[in-house]
Amino acid sequence: MFPIRHVRPAVLGLACALLAACHGGKAVRESPAPVADSAPAVSQPAPDDTFNAVAWMQTSAEYAALTTQVYRNVCEALPAAVADPSQSALIGGEQGGGFESLPPAVIADIDETLLDNSAYAARRIASGGPFDPVAWKVWIDEAAARPMPGVQILLDCLAEQGVTLAYISNRNHEGERAATVKNLRQEGFPLPPDNDDLVLLRGDPRGVDADWSEKGARRRWVADRYRVVALLGDNIGDFMNGIATSIEQRDAMVRDHADNWGTRWFVFPNPSYGSWEKALLYGCDTAKTAPGRCRHQHLRAD
Ligand SMILES: [Mg+2]
After folding, report:
1. What is the whole-number distance in angstroms between the Cα of residue 53 and the centre of ligand 1?
2. Which domains does the chain have, with CATH numbers?
3. Among 19, 38, 107, 248, which one has the highest count of C-beta atoms within 10 angstroms of its own C-beta?
4. Cα(169) to centroid(ligand 1), Å
5. Which uninterrupted H or E stretch holds 106?
6. Which tens digits make up the pLDDT trace of 77-125?
7. Tens-place pLDDT, residues 254-270
8. Which residue, among 111, 116, 84, has the nearest Cα to 230 in the 3D structure?
């Protein structure tokens, strides 16, 4: 699900509660100008500052090269993982016991991992407006998201090695599932015509975490049926739960699982949105400090 942007925290929280549609929790986009600690939150949205991120994703040779590189790395890692029944990419007990005899599967996030939603982002930049849930739903319903650059490399090697692809996304189960499945099928992603069981979106009754944006319960549903040999995503929540925390703790989570990155876990670049933005505001008392100031305080100058 694409993030909410240009929205004040209170409005953002309300929008999340009402719409259940802000998995990335797009950070606030107030003016970057210094603001006194006691100043109230800026009331007007600032001009969009995501142009460079979206332009890079849509136009740079480097982004396409990076995504292709990640798919290639997955394919190079798969044979050994498939051949060793003792291997699982899941942590925290998500795989469960007795998995050695289960067929292998890769779990992939959808947005900015398999499908490219930058056209939606470009529309919001062109309109100059904040995240619009109506516009996002229109985009979902169009089922027009393009495949990520290089993804055919992944699809070919999964087919060659007999590995199933499961899709876990924080698009909403309610109201967004049919169009998401349609989009995936149109773009050639493996989904049997009569079976879309392996598309698990947010709110799917088969697996809902206490924080329903988390994906652990849905990973466990897949793991009851498959040995998960790799995880793919653009957000660390695609790999583990508990990511809604501070920048320092998120860094520690990455270090704690250093052996998994590039071997079992494969991450795609996404400078446009993600849970990393929420981390910039973690612990920020927005009643006392403007969110823009909280965000800028995290930049290092040495
Ligand atoms: Mg994603």
Report:
1. 15
2. 60-271 (3.40.50.1000)
3. 107
4. 7
5. strand 104-108
6. 999 999 999 999 999 999 999 999 999 999 999 999 999 999 999 999 9
7. 999 999 999 999 999 99
8. 84
List CB-based neighbours of ion ligand 1 within 5 Å. 109, 111-112, 234
Q: How far apart are CA 230 and CA 88, in angstroms?
A: 8
Q: Which are the contacts of 302, defined by CB distance < 8 A and separation ≥ 6?
A: none
* Nearest partner of 81 among 255, 267, 261, 264, judged by Cα: 264
CA of 57 to the centre of ligand 1 (A): 14
User: Model pTM?
Assistant: 0.84
Report the separation in Å between the CA atom of 270 and the middle of ligand 1, taken as the mean of its atom positions.
8
The span from the CA of 77 to the CA of 229, in Å, is 9
Pair of tokens at residue 65: 């090269």
What was the pLDDT predicted at 244?
Answer: 93
- How far, in Å, is the centroid of ligand 1 from the Cα of 197? 19
Residue 99 CA to residue 67 CA, distance in Å, equals: 30
pLDDT at res. 8: 33
**Token pair listed for 26:** 């797009």
Q: Which residues, given as ranges, of the chain have pLDDT below 70?
A: 1-48
**C-alpha 39 – ligand 1 centre gap (Å):** 34
Mean pLDDT of the chain: 86
The pLDDT of residue 50: 87
The pLDDT score that the predictor gives to residue 128 is 84
Q: How far is CA 79 from CA 66, 70, 157, 192, 219, in A?
A: 21, 16, 10, 24, 22
C-alpha 117 – ligand 1 centre gap (Å): 10
CA distances from 296 to 54, 166, 223, 289 (A): 21, 38, 40, 11
